[in-house]
Amino acid sequence: MLVQSSYGKSRVRLVQLQRGRGRHDLRDLTVAVRFEGDYEESYTDGDNTAVLPTDTMKNTVYALAAQEPVGDPERFGLRLAQHFLARNERLTRVRIDCTDHSWHPMATGTGEHGQAFVRIAPGARTAIVEATREGTTVAAGVADLVIMKSSHSAFDRFPRDEYTTLPETRDRLLATALTAVWQYSRTDLDFTLLWGDVRDMLLEVFARHHSESVQHTLYAMGQGVLDTILQVTAIRLTMPNKHHLPVDLSPFGLENRNEIFVATEEPHGLIEATIARSPGGTVL
Amino acid sequence: MLVQSSYGKSRVRLVQLQRGRGRHDLRDLTVAVRFEGDYEESYTDGDNTAVLPTDTMKNTVYALAAQEPVGDPERFGLRLAQHFLARNERLTRVRIDCTDHSWHPMATGTGEHGQAFVRIAPGARTAIVEATREGTTVAAGVADLVIMKSSHSAFDRFPRDEYTTLPETRDRLLATALTAVWQYSRTDLDFTLLWGDVRDMLLEVFARHHSESVQHTLYAMGQGVLDTILQVTAIRLTMPNKHHLPVDLSPFGLENRNEIFVATEEPHGLIEATIARSPGGTVL
Amino acid sequence: MLVQSSYGKSRVRLVQLQRGRGRHDLRDLTVAVRFEGDYEESYTDGDNTAVLPTDTMKNTVYALAAQEPVGDPERFGLRLAQHFLARNERLTRVRIDCTDHSWHPMATGTGEHGQAFVRIAPGARTAIVEATREGTTVAAGVADLVIMKSSHSAFDRFPRDEYTTLPETRDRLLATALTAVWQYSRTDLDFTLLWGDVRDMLLEVFARHHSESVQHTLYAMGQGVLDTILQVTAIRLTMPNKHHLPVDLSPFGLENRNEIFVATEEPHGLIEATIARSPGGTVL
Amino acid sequence: MLVQSSYGKSRVRLVQLQRGRGRHDLRDLTVAVRFEGDYEESYTDGDNTAVLPTDTMKNTVYALAAQEPVGDPERFGLRLAQHFLARNERLTRVRIDCTDHSWHPMATGTGEHGQAFVRIAPGARTAIVEATREGTTVAAGVADLVIMKSSHSAFDRFPRDEYTTLPETRDRLLATALTAVWQYSRTDLDFTLLWGDVRDMLLEVFARHHSESVQHTLYAMGQGVLDTILQVTAIRLTMPNKHHLPVDLSPFGLENRNEIFVATEEPHGLIEATIARSPGGTVL
User: Fold this and answer.
1) Is B230 found in the same domain as B194?
2) pLDDT confidence of B19, banded at 50, 70, 90?
């Protein structure tokens, strides 16, 4: 018995260049398309008569981009979702995931160059659109935004058992690769403006928070977004705790005044939570 | 409002060596621990009094391994889950994920060497244990098992629209990196024996199936497992379609008799489904 | 017969924090140490009496950082190289490789925050020091600086044979992940100032060049550095050609006015050259 | 002044299927082509008249495979090298790097299946061909063969200074990801047979050696190959020391009888050496 299924195309790489006078606009996206619907016969009987090929999904990404500039990734996701819903009767739920790889105009001696770009990646911008026959939801996010704070971060007063060796600290490095997704209340917003606002608020709270733990700071970051950006109904934050361990210098007759650390990749803590305006709040 | 949260430790790397006479047993695991429970105060108030440090979770992995050999990864997951549930009042749900990195005794001129090993990785073995105060569930799986079939694979009779360029074919390469997770009906099984049985069945069906699509073969593989291995209640299969495209040799005056392909990484199809004995069947 | 050998420690991860008033300075390095010397007995006889453990090399990285701030990665490389040469009689050549992971003070509503940082990575800064009993050489570089230009890039008038299908073009996207290493004439320079000058020059020429090929632009970039920065004696540039292929939209009845591209990862061109002031010029 | 240059195509992905009766032969290669020669004008003047496009190099890989089965990767490298040398006057040195991704026929209940395959990767087979107008050299190798030994591995009697904390040990885990390249004396050998012989010898010595250090075992492995396989003139081995550190269980009141280890990724030791029959011996 088929209790759940989906199919689609991942990692469709689209670059669109708009050639303005002197200045080019560059949009670089990785797109994924996922279909859910009444496709049981394709699984049970090998009947493909309703199965839009994933190759056609890919072609559609390029064809729609060619007919109208991509613009915001959320907007492009909406166009793709509506297109697929309108064309595929068996489709009940379509999801579009976009990752926007940001290119910045290159700085030169005489200002920004309009036709040369640097890929700078302090976390990728992501957008998710999910549409059914009943309605459409838009979410946005940031992926792998690597941040660190070197003050106002503590972890103490935790329970100890016979396997606990961690010392208490009121002053540690707190580093993470932030991934967040937040859900919007509507589908007709200025998504690029809002995206910057949310990201700035996440960073602002992270920088200023007097942290008792990753959990504590994660919650404050989500709360900061919900308090100030009314178009966001819920936010999910994922924050690995990328440990920076003070190096024991005592064997060398040296003191570590909390200044020399080894950055580690594994193991790492992993803290995740969803914060919403109302009990039923969810995020795509 | 905190609508969902979890915290834990990921990528705990444990190697256990059991020194038998002449022959060593080597177990190499990557373990992740995840807690859900009544930890709201740690998020909202920075109150850590109930928060078992993730560092202690890590230490516990090593300490429990030291007290009794790890054995099956499912069995070790059960021990860890019970340990944490018994010790942490606020904990309502604990999940242990183990990935087993298989090492094989090295073949030498005079047979297997008992104390030298090769890491061979035709897909990693995975195990998941989830425990609450009400009950415990065990699942197992395989990750990234890369397989290909070069006959009996077709994809045709699909719908065409103005963006469809894919030709129909009755003879294509079908390649995937299979990831599967299957749920067991009980927690006291011979997990290692069963794991081999499930994997073998998955490969057997993949090899023999007359495939009309990835969906068709995926379903047959899951059905094969459910039909023959009664201890499995549901299985989720994820099969990216790693496209191998015939190279167009006509510009060189050559014919491609379906023998020369370019292996591509992106974009790729992505097919996923869960197959269960009963309508409510799920997989961890 | 041992004709060449080296040993050392790679991926030593050092983070140093200097706590100024209000503002912290953060230095994040990955360091590698490599020894060459008269160590034959360790290979042939298992005689370790002269083999400084690689674990001690790692400890030395931390201990020297603790005694004096790291500063420029080139400077830290020089300190490490001199330390090891002075202590190890059998050592004839020591090489230190540093990769500097740049963190930027976080922008907040009221200016830069002095104790919170974002990792922004438009290419990592690298430094190499190699020292023997006869002398010391310093080189610096940039790794994986991803750049693209959308005008003034051509590739045509190339030879054609029966396997050539590439069309000629006077207008293509040119994208690469630049890795460069340049050799300095002395060891007492302002390395941080120079590093910025070299990187800016590389980008400036890349942006402005009327490119006939990757080779053509690579050479101009190297020449630009040698022409303007006298402290550089030679430079090696490695530029993969990260192809952006125009999508064929004609099957959809659409025209591609050189605006819609698929970004590809493989295969890729790979162009590499060393440009020097004099015939014998080399780069570490 | 251009003191060194090369250009070429990397990561050309070729899959060739030979359809025998009942049984298919599958060859899966990643190929890189590199040209050195009199191409200065392309760098200095943007003159492409002698520059074979790297796209044509890629097409040639597919076209030559179509005309005659690939066979041994060394053999295919020789064909490509000769083809390019014969066609390109300015070319003085061509290098072909092949990585062979091994697929194994799938085991089924009734024996091996001839048309279904599993990718098993205990180290990839590599082949290198370099050809000039004067002669041709063939080398082969293995990449990232992950191996471990749990007995007969020591490291002690090393020098200690004030930064040394490593304890001496007569019993440690020794793990590495072996990469080796060996040079053949001729170009008309049975490369597949020899490749297996060399790999088996490397593993055999690794398993049996009473190791005083990585250096010691590395040398013995190379010596074992040179002593028994006369067609090999030199071999270069690269062996990262993938540390497995005993976990300190004493805080938990437990003893670690050298049985519980943490596997680490970084930092790691890195040992490299070339062993040859004669003083001038080198490896591609």
Assistant:
1) yes
2) confident
Which amino acid is residue A4, in one-letter code? Q
Structure token pair of residue B11:
């990528």
- Distance in angstroms between the alpha carbons of the first and the last residue of chain A: 26
Instruction: Please compute Rg for chain D using Cα positions.
Output: 23
Q: A147-151, C75-79, C108-112, D152-156: lowest mean pLDDT where?
A: C108-112
pLDDT band at A200, cuts 50/70/90? Answer: very high
Q: Is D193 exposed, middle or buried (0-12, 13-18, 19+ CB in 10 A)?
A: exposed
pLDDT of residue D103: 86
Task: Domain count for chain C, please give it.
Answer: 2
Per-residue model confidence as pLDDT tens digits over A163-193: 999 999 999 999 999 999 999 999 999 999 9
A9 is catalytic: yes
Whether D100 and D119 map to the same domain: the answer is yes
> Are D167 and D210 members of one domain?
yes
Name the residue among C2, C275, C276 with its Cβ closest to that of D219: C2
Task: Return the pLDDT at B96.
Answer: 95
Query: CA dihedral defined by A212, A218, A222, A227, rounded to 10 degrees?
Result: 10
Question: DSSP assignment, residue C155?
Answer: B
User: For position B114, what pLDDT does the model report?
Assistant: 80
Question: Tokens representing A21?
Answer: 């006078």
Q: Which chains touch A (3 or more CB pairs under 8 A)?
A: B, C, D
- Cα D220 to Cα D206: distance, rounded to the nearest angstrom: 8
Bond preceding residue B267 cis, omega within 30 of 0: yes
Task: Please check the confidence at residue C121 and state whether its pLDDT lies above 80.
Answer: no
Report the predicted TM-score, pTM, of the whole model to 2 decimal places.
0.91
Token pair of C200 as six digits: 């800016």
ipTM, 2 dp: 0.90
Q: Is B193 on the interface with D (CB under 8 A)?
A: no
Rounded to 10 degrees, what is the CA torsion of D212, D217, D218, D223?
Answer: 130
Output the average pLDDT for chain A.
93
D86 & D156 share domain: no
Locate tokens 């490299």: which residue? Answer: D272
Please say which residue of C134, C153, C187 terminates a domain.
Answer: C134
Say how far apart CA D270 and CA C54 lie, in whole Å: 9
Residues of C in contact with A203 (CB under 8 A): 106-108, 116, 118
**Residue owning tokens 């990839």:** D124
pLDDT of residue A107: 81
pLDDT(C19) > 80: yes
Place of tokens 């909406």: A78
Cα–Cα dist A119/A123, whole Å = 11
The set of residues, in sequence order, having a beta carbon less than 8 Å from that of A231 and lying 6+ positions away, is A184, A185, A186, A189, A194
Q: What is the domain extent for residue A130?
A: 7-134
Eight-class DSSP state of D153? B
In a domain, B49, yes or no: yes
Q: Which residues 199-218 on chain C approach chain A with CB closer than 8 angstroms?
A: 200, 203-204, 206-208
Measured CA to CA, the distance from residue D220 to residue C52 in angstroms comes to 21
